[in-house]
Specification:
The chain is α+β, with helices and mostly antiparallel strands and about 100 residues long. The protein has 3 helices and 5 strands.
């Protein structure tokens, strides 16, 4: 960093430490009505997963009650939650998609 002299005193530029923005997990929650095949389609369409990875996450949602679809910045996570919720409702499924800080 450059230093600068001003009126006989020495000024030094200091680097400030900026913390990275927090990341958010996007999760799907299990319900008794949404078909497993629909959950796989959601994971492939909105999270870009291949069928095998989407199936693993769907089974985790089914057996453990929730599964992580991905980790994103706040705006991207909120957009994914909105897209999945809108898509599920338009197909008359109660699939719940939420985000929580990582």
């Amino acid at each position: 960093m450059a230093t600068k002299h001003q009126d006989g005193s020495l000024l030094e530029a200091k680097r400030s430490q900026v913390a990275p923005p927090p990341l958010y997990k996007v999760l799907l929650l299990n319900d008794d009505f949404t078909p497993m095949d629909f959950v796989i389609v959601v994971l492939q369409r909105f999270f870009g997963l291949d069928r095998e990875h989407a199936t693993r996450i769907m089974l985790k949602v089914h057996t453990e009650g929730r599964g992580v679809c991905g980790v994103y910045s706040r705006d991207v996570a909120a957009t994914k939650v909105q897209q999945v919720t809108t898509f599920a409702r338009s197909n008359q499924h109660p699939l719940a998609c939420v985000m929580e800080e990582n």
